[in-house]
Design a protein that fits this description.
The structure is a single chain. Strand 7, helix 9 and strand 8 form a beta-alpha-beta unit. The chain has nine helices and ten strands. 41% of the residues lie in helices and 19% in strands. It is globular. Strands 6-2-1-7-8-10-9 form a seven-stranded mixed beta sheet. Strands 3-5-4 form a three-stranded antiparallel beta sheet. Helix 1 packs parallel to helix 3 and helix 5 crosses helix 8. The N and C termini lie far apart (49 Å). It is α/β, with parallel strands linked by helices. The chain has two domains: 63 residues, no CATH class; 192 residues, Vaccinia Virus protein VP39 (Rossmann fold). The longest helix has 16 residues.
């Protein structure tokens, strides 16, 4: 197994920033290192060969991003989180708005977006909600848009859905085709997929609920602060923010502008502009 030192990781992140405008300079170094090593291993590249390829082959950046930003994800991950969404958070939003907006930031291949769409459909409010799903990797966004997943992933997804206590079976929402689960297109008809970089991107809308789960664990402290500032600006007052179970707002500069709604599920509410 190869190794890579901090100086080379800095060279790689600086090259990507200068040449392609993607900023990984404030990613948590340990996870950046692990993913770069994985890419070197997959592509059978030395450090110097990887740097040359990034510099000389602009098309390679898409493969690199695809591997670098890969998130292992599943539908209804942490079923208790989704029950709280259904039973507490969304009813609280509905007290003030019949129609509202949700942002899935760093949506990866879209399993979380589909989970939300199914939840909203079962609550009978799917048509009243606008969903924005963003990621910086256009290849993975295309995958999310297709709503198509390997059938072998469905066993775990179905187990999660059962623990979420859904209204029927996950099979009600997809058909099997050539070893793939193809989800009903109408589930995504209220979803806008767009490329957006959490690090470099602008605030582009106002939302009642922002979900960014298991993304900020890859960022260092400075970058977490920047991203949380962006989420704060993107939320209406009294809007909700959900982050991953291993993440925390405690150390962030904007933490005092939120209150904890559910500490177990890491759900917060914006109380100060």
């Amino acid at each position: 197994m190869q190794d890579i030192d901090i100086a080379d990781l800095k060279r790689i992140s600086e090259l990507i920033y200068q040449k392609y405008g993607y900023d990984f300079r404030n990613y948590a170094m340990s996870s950046f290192k692990r993913r770069v090593l994985r890419i070197m291993d997959l592509k059978r590249l030395t450090v110097d060969a990887l740097i040359r390829k990034l510099n000389d082959s602009p098309e390679f950046i898409h493969e690199f991003l695809d591997e670098l930003t890969v998130n292992v994800t599943e539908m209804f991950r942490d079923p208790s989180f989704w029950r709280i969404m259904r039973e507490e958070i969304i009813p609280a939003i509905l007290l003030n708005h019949k129609q509202f907006k949700i942002w899935h930031a760093g949506c990866s291949s879209g399993e979380e977006v589909l989970s939300m769409a199914i939840l909203l459909k079962e609550m009978g409010i799917h048509q009243d909600v606008q969903i924005y799903a963003t990621d910086l990797d256009t290849t993975i966004l295309e995958r999310a848009k297709s709503g198509t997943y390997s059938i072998k992933n469905m066993e775990l997804n179905e187990k999660n859905y059962i623990r979420f206590q859904g209204a029927g079976s996950l099979k009600d929402y997809y058909r099997e085709e050539n070893g793939q689960a193809v989800f009903n297109k109408d589930l995504l008809n209220n979803v806008t997929f767009r490329k957006h970089d959490l690090v470099m991107g602008e605030v582009f809308n106002k939302f009642d609920l922002v979900l960014c789960r298991n993304v900020m664990i890859y960022f260092n402290q400075a970058l977490q602060n920047e991203v949380l500032k962006k989420f704060h600006e993107s939320l209406f007052k009294y809007g909700y923010l959900a982050i991953g179970s291993k993440e925390s707002l405690i150390w962030c500069d904007y933490a005092n502008r939120f209150i904890v709604v559910n500490n177990e599920e890491k759900i917060y509410k914006k109380i100060k502009d």
